[in-house]
Design goal:
Chain lengths: 195, 242
C-alpha cells in the first residue's frame, strides 16, 4: 500500500510538472485520474447529475489556470477536492440568487421512475441511486468527503490523510463513523439489492 | 476470539489498507464463518453501491479529451510563467492590503483612546491572585464587559471574567501559586469565571495543561463538553470540534 501511495504521489508530481511545462496531455491524464472523484464530490452537494459534471468541468478548468499556485503537487487530489467544493458552493449560491430573483419556490421534486439507470451499474434503479445520493448528502461534509475519496477515488485512509493534511487517526475515525451511519441508513436498500 | 482478528481485517478493508495476503486470508475465513461472510459481503456491497450511485455518466477519458479541447480553444488559460507572476502579484497585493488594514486599525484604536481621554472599557472589578509566568508569542486578553482585546504582558493584572486568547505559535503560563500553574497552548481560548467566590477555568477551545502541587484541593477545568477534575498533579485538556 505504501508503494502504491508513493507511486501515485510521484505520478501526480510528474504530471503537474509536465502540465506546467506546457504538456497538455499531462493535464488530460490528471483529469482522467480524478474526474470520477470530482464528479462524485459535486454530486454529494448538488442533486442534478448534469450540473455536477458541469461543476467538475469548471473545477478542472480553474485548477488548470491556477496550477502554478499548487504548493505541494503530491497533494493534488486534496487540492482538487477543495476547488470542487468551492465551485459547488459558488454554483449553489448562483442558483439561489437566480431563484430569489425569479421569485421561485422550491424546485419541483424530480420525477423518478423504476427504469434501470444509465450508469456503470446496471443493477441499481434511478430510485435507488437517488436514495443512496440523498443518504450520503445528509452526512456532514467532513464525512461525505471521506466517503467519496475512499469509495469512489479508491484512496486509502493513509492517502486521504496525506491529501487533506489531516492525521490518519482522524480520517480513520471519520470514515468509520460515516460508514456506520451509511450502513444503518442504507440497510433496507442493501437487503433489496442482495435479494 | 478468532473472529476478532477477521473483524480487524474487515476494518482494514474498509480503510483500504489491507494487504493482498490479508485479503486472501479473510476470504478463506469467510467461506467457513457465516457471520464474518455476511459482514464482509455487506461491506463490499455498500462500497459498490456508493461507487455506482456516484459514478459519472461521462467516462474519465471523454472528460479528459473534452477539457483539453476546451483549453485549446481558450488561449487565455495558458500555463505561462506570467500566470505564476500574476498569482504572486495577487498575493503581494493581499499582504499589502492586510498591512494597510492593520495600520488603519491601530491608528483608529490609538486615536480613539487619545480622543476620549479615558479607558475604552469599564475597569475590571476583582483582581485574582494569578500572575503571568512564561509568555511566548502574542496572547490577547479581554476583560469582562469589554470588547477590546489587549496584548497580555508579563506584569499584567488578572481579573475575574478575563478571557485569554492565544494565537498560533503562542502560549502563556498562568501561575496560580508558588507550585501550581496552568499553561495555555496555541490557538486556545480560556475564560476565568467566578463561582461561589472561587475562580473557575473554562476552556472554550484549544488546549491547556495544568501542573499542580502534589496535595492540591479540588481543581476543575470546565469545557463546552463537560467538567474535568484533576486527580493527579499533571493533566492536559483539549477541546476540538471533533
Amino acid at each position: 500500500m505504501a508503494v502504491e501511495l508513493k507511486q501515485t504521489i510521484t505520478g501526480d508530481r510528474q504530471l503537474v510538472r509536465a502540465a506546467l511545462n506546457g504538456e497538455a496531455s499531462a493535464f488530460g491524464t490528471i483529469v482522467e485520474r480524478y474526474w470520477n472523484m470530482v464528479v462524485a464530490l459535486a454530486l454529494s452537494k448538488v442533486s442534478d447529475a448534469a450540473e455536477a459534471e458541469d461543476i467538475a468541468q469548471e473545477s478542472f478548468l480553474k485548477a488548470y489556470s491556477q496550477l502554478a499556485r499548487l504548493r505541494d503537487p503530491s497533494r493534488l487530489a486534496g487540492w482538487l477536492s477543495k476547488i470542487a467544493m468551492q465551485q459547488c458552493s459558488n454554483s449553489l449560491r448562483r442558483a439561489f440568487r437566480v431563484k430569489m430573483a425569479l421569485g421561485c419556490r422550491a424546485t419541483p421534486v424530480e420525477v423518478l421512475n423504476e427504469r434501470v439507470a444509465i450508469t456503470a451499474n446496471p443493477g441499481l434503479t434511478q430510485n435507488q441511486i437517488h436514495f443512496v445520493r440523498q443518504t450520503v448528502r445528509r452526512l456532514p461534509e467532513k464525512f461525505r468527503t471521506m466517503i467519496v475519496m475512499r469509495f469512489v477515488a479508491n484512496l486509502s485512509t493513509v492517502q486521504i490523510a496525506e491529501q487533506l493534511g489531516k492525521r490518519p487517526g482522524t480520517v480513520r475515525v471519520r470514515l468509520h463513523r460515516a460508514y456506520k451511519l451509511l450502513r444503518k441508513e442504507l440497510a433496507p436498500l442493501l437487503e433489496e439489492v442482495e435479494s | 476470539m478468532t473472529c476478532e482478528k477477521y473483524k480487524n481485517l474487515i476494518e482494514k478493508y474498509i480503510e483500504g489498507i489491507i494487504s493482498d495476503g490479508q485479503l486472501a486470508e479473510l476470504k478463506t475465513h469467510t467461506q467457513m464463518c457465516d457471520s464474518c461472510r455476511d459482514q464482509f459481503e455487506r461491506c463490499v456491497l455498500l462500497q459498490d453501491v456508493v461507487k455506482h450511485a456516484f459514478s459519472s455518466r461521462t467516462s474519465a477519458e471523454q472528460a479528459g479529451a473534452s477539457i483539453l479541447d476546451k483549453l485549446s480553444s481558450e488561449k487565455n488559460r495558458l500555463l505561462a510563467p506570467a500566470r505564476y507572476n500574476k498569482a504572486l502579484l495577487g498575493r503581494e497585493a493581499a499582504v499589502a492590503a492586510g498591512i494597510i488594514l492593520a495600520v488603519g486599525l491601530y491608528l483608529g484604536f490609538a486615536l480613539g483612546r487619545a480622543g476620549t481621554g479615558k479607558p475604552s472599557s469599564a475597569p475590571p472589578k476583582s483582581q485574582v491572585p494569578i500572575s503571568i509566568g512564561d509568555l511566548e508569542g502574542t496572547v490577547l486578553v479581554r476583560h469582562k464587559d469589554s470588547d477590546v482585546w489587549q496584548t497580555l504582558q508579563a506584569g499584567s493584572n488578572i481579573y475575574l471574567g478575563d478571557t485569554f486568547h492565544s494565537t498560533a505559535r503562542s502560549a502563556c503560563v498562568l501561575k496560580l501559586d508558588d507550585k501550581s500553574k496552568l499553561e495555555l497552548n496555541q490557538n486556545s481560548m480560556l475564560v476565568l469565571n467566578s463561582y461561589n467566590g472561587q475562580t473557575q477555568f473554562f476552556l472554550e477551545h484549544g488546549e491547556c495543561t495544568a501542573s499542580l502541587e502534589s496535595h492540591h484541593g479540588p481543581f476543575f477545568i470546565d469545557t463546552p463538553n463537560g467538567r474535568m477534575e484533576a486527580l493527579g498533579t499533571e493533566f492536559t485538556v483539549t477541546v476540538t470540534d471533533e
